[in-house]
Amino acid sequence: MAPVCRPASKAPHLCATPFCRNSHAKGRNVCSKCHTRWYRETHPINYTYHYLRVRARRRGIEFLLTLDEFIKFCLATNYIALKGRFKNDASIDRIREGEPYQADNIQLLTVGNNVAKRRAWEAVQRKIQSSVAPENPF
Ligand SMILES: [Zn+2]
Question: Span 45-74, mean pLDDT?
Answer without folding.
Answer: 96
